Each structure stands twice: as structure tokens, then as C-alpha cells.
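[Discussion] Sanity-checking designs against the backbone

I'm trying to build intuition for which residues belong where. Below is a C-alpha cell string of 243 positions. I'd appreciate it if someone posts a full sequence so I can compare it with mine line by line.
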């Protein structure tokens, strides 16, 4: 399979087949990924449920990246562009996407030293000599990292899964996005209207489509530069959310 940006997706064609996900994912880098994420779950970094299901849900993002908002080009950044997993935690979806989209430069951001140590070890285990994913682990709070000159407005793509409530996620993600970049947030299937356009516009964000198949995701686009005052200092986005 080819990505819309022209690079190669390392993506098993039948990965979303529900009947045998473990068998499908049991070979090559996805076999190593299963092992790494099993360790993540054992250490309490990953939630309940089969690890293969976490991988499949992460790979559902490829459908969103290939589709793009209606009437626009696909979202997937071109080769060599930077992508960020906001609050990478136990490695989902960042590690999965780094394996699936090795043509991108991936950054995994987390504020926990323990989780970042695990993520660095996981990256070493998943690196393939013939096409090792370019992945950097950043140990920092998002509110602080968003003001770093080397990270601010650097990313074409930010992904987020279980990071925080919508207002916090938007405020912490927007500073990382370049104009025209996209934020894709994994969403619960039974709620909607969590992203009010009038409250997101001060961040420079535009609300895009809500994707419901094969999994639920909200797409947002950085329409203009995020103002310098965002993100606010550590803890304030959660204590005094924008909406």
C-alpha cells in the first residue's frame, strides 16, 4: 500500500480484519510491537483489552490520514515532515504509527520520566536496520514544550489519544502545529459536539470532520498561528479550561 504523500506505509492489508488480529499482527515489526506493548501494559502504561486491539485502533488513523477533510488533499504529511504524539504514555498510538509511517519524523512527548525511559527502550527494540523509524522521545510537560523554539509550530501532524479533555488537548496541541497542520484526536463513540468552533478560533484552530468509521476521530486544522500566550503555564489549561 502507498501513502497519499508518496511514501510507503508498512501496513498489513488485512490488519483490520476482526477475526484473527493477533495472527495478522504476529510477524515482522508488528510482532515486535506486540511484545513491546505487552510490556507496556504489564507496567501499567497501557489500558485494558488485548494489545492487538490497541494496535488496530491506532492503525485506524491511517484511514483518516488518507481520507482528509471533504474537498481537501489527504492529511498525511509528505516524507520527512515532523509528527507528534501528544502524551504518548505507553506508546499508543505513537509507536504504532512510527512503525506504520517510517517516512515521517516522529516525536513522542510525555511528562513522565518513567514512561519516557520505557519509550526510548521501545524505540531501540523496534528499530529495523533496513528502515528504522526516526523517532525522538521528549520528556516534558506539554505546556512547557509548546513554548520551546525548536518545537513550536514545527509539526504537520499532532495525534492524541486519552491525553486530556478537549479544551486542554486543543490548547496544548495547537502551539506545536504549523499553519495548515492537523490535529487528530481519538474520540469516544457515544459523544459529539465536544469541540465548539467559537472557543477554538482564539487558538487558530478550525474544526474539521468527525470520523466515525472504522473508529471515532475528531480532525482539527491549524488555520492561523497559535498566539504566543498559549499554552498557559503548567496546570492552568486544566484548572481554567477555555471551554
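Best answer:
Here's mine. Compare freely.
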Amino acid at each position: 500500500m502507498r501513502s497519499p504523500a508518496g511514501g510507503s506505509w508498512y501496513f498489513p492489508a488485512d490488519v483490520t480484519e476482526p477475526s484473527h488480529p493477533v495472527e495478522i499482527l504476529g510477524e515482522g515489526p508488528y510482532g515486535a510491537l506486540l511484545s513491546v506493548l505487552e510490556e507496556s501494559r504489564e507496567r501499567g502504561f497501557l489500558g485494558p483489552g488485548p494489545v492487538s486491539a490497541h494496535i488496530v485502533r491506532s492503525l485506524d488513523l491511517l484511514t483518516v490520514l488518507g481520507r482528509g477533510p471533504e474537498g481537501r488533499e489527504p492529511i498525511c504529511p509528505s516524507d520527512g515532515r515532523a509528527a507528534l504524539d501528544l502524551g504518548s504514555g505507553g506508546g499508543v498510538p505513537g509507536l504504532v504509527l512510527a512503525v506504520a509511517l517510517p517516512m515521517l519524523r516522529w516525536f513522542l512527548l510525555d511528562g513522565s520520566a518513567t514512561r519516557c525511559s520505557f519509550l526510548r527502550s521501545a524505540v531501540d527494540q523496534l528499530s529495523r536496520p533496513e528502515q528504522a523509524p526516526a523517532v525522538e522521545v521528549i520528556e516534558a510537560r506539554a505546556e512547557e514544550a509548546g513554548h520551546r523554539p525548536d518545537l513550536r509550530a514545527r509539526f504537520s501532524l499532532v495525534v492524541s489519544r486519552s491525553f486530556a479533555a478537549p479544551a486542554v488537548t486543543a490548547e496544548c496541541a495547537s502551539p506545536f502545529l504549523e499553519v495548515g497542520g492537523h490535529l487528530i484526536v481519538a474520540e469516544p463513540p457515544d459523544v459529539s459536539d465536544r469541540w465548539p468552533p467559537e472557543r477554538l478560533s482564539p487558538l487558530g484552530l478550525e474544526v474539521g470532520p468527525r470520523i466515525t468509521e472504522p473508529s471515532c476521530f475528531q480532525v482539527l486544522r491549524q488555520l492561523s498561528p497559535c498566539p504566543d500566550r498559549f499554552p498557559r503555564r503548567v496546570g492552568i489549561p486544566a484548572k481554567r479550561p477555555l471551554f
